[in-house]
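The records we work with from here on pair a chain with its fold. Taken together, the tokens spell out the fold as the letters spell out the chain. To see the layout at work, look at the sequence and tokens printed below.
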Amino acid sequence: MGARTGRGWAFIELAALGENSWSRYAMALTAIALVPSIVATLLVFIAGGGPAGGVLQQYAPIALAGAVAIWAARRLHRRPWQSLISTGLVIDGRRLAIGAVVQLAIMGGQLVLADALTGWQLDLSLRLSWAVAILALLLIPLQAASEEILFRGYATQALGRVLGSRLLIALLVGLLFGGLHFNTHGGLTVPYFLVLSLVFSLVSLRDEGLELTIGGHAAMNLFAFGAAHTALVAPGAIGESPTMTPFTASAIAAMAVDGVIFYGLTRGFVRLFCRPRLVAHGRVGHDRATLDRSGAIDADE
């Protein structure tokens, strides 16, 4: 497949920095599936029930899956693990911060709006111990980053080896992402997470990297965890209830609107505060990738 132009292809084609035989993908996917499953099973016996055990069982296996994907990129595919995140093989802290702050602002604005329209009496008193809350604060960003690395990173680049359509790649990644959360929030779980995944794919391919979506995804999950474990919202699934709040069609519509706002604001702030992306080129092998400054990608293009 020849060189492809257009937003997102520079990121997708970072897989070309490494080795991409089917056997390597088979080994990587087996490890990504099995290792977290084994850990999740062990946590059931070791951590037991209760809020702390629930936090570990919900977030630790996914965080570990992302670590396995990083290991696979470096050891099996023999390319820089940073190529799962950025065309420049560096992680941009400003982009991480922009994604997190914008998403927190959007969700905070929704909360204030809901309070104004419904007359809720906001009571943010925590219904978990501080130890459990701190454990969640540590694990949730890792879990969110791992999902981005797995789906918008590894899976997107792997599918790009055989597919020539960015839309088709994003749709398949979205279905995989929705399948991971299958029925956790009722019958509309997969459509909801498909829309969320399409938003994050659009943002990450437009920006040629995952920092914005890692920051936004982490902020979204932290906000949801906090809302589910304060007096504002009924206790969430983690260690307290066997089910989560079901999604509705209005929730999907709200997610789509949020996505438009997230895309527009992050794009604007990247233009203001971030440098153009560099693009990595090189031969197979994680020690031979180089940066080509002449191939820098400008956010204003």
Remarks:
- The longest strand covers residues 289-297.
- Residues 187 and 246 are 8 Å apart (CA to CA).
- Confidence is low (pLDDT under 50) at residues 233-243, 283-288.
- The first helix runs from residue 9 to 12.
